[in-house]
Amino acid sequence: MLLAALMTSLAGCAFLLSAGSEGCGPGRGYGRRRATRKLAPLAYKQFSPNVAEKTAGASGRYEGKITRSSERFKELTANYNPDIVFKDEENTGADRMMTQRCRDKLDSLAVSVMNVWPGVRLRVTEGWDEDGHHSEESLHYEGRAVDITTSDRDRHKYAVLARLALEAGFDWVYYESKAHVHCSVKSDRATRL
Known about the structure:
Elements: H1 2-21, E1 47-48, E2 77-78, E3 84-86, E4 97-98, H2 100-116, E5 122-126, E6 145-150, H3 158-168, E7 172-177, E8 180-184, H4 188-192
């Protein structure tokens, strides 16, 4: 009788310990492959969050144009990430110039693009604008906005690319045209406050 009770106790302890040992790995279900989740693409002309770009709930107000000769030019940083293709049609490197926050989000997005579409890289068609090609008070003038595509220029991917940009942390994303996705971030100053 004592032996049977002891064996039952040992079997119970072994059962409890074996069930708990599976939880020691990283994440849930150690050893099991995680199921890929379905990304909800943005619809054409949809923006998220569903507020105007230059509001507090999105990328915040316009703070003024940055030129190469302005004091604020020092706030911009060049992005030389090899996983990103920069169109640089101006041949000045302007598309590589951006705020640190924009750079961080873009670098994160580049990794996501390569994970979702192996062999495809993120492509920046427009970044900081020093030539006045955008609308008045565009965040491109502050290095806080980028227009993006994929390196293969497959327009069927742009709706998912917009969703990936949101998940990478861009503060406002707009599936603006069939040719690109527009993304912007809050100013570095605003995020420090």
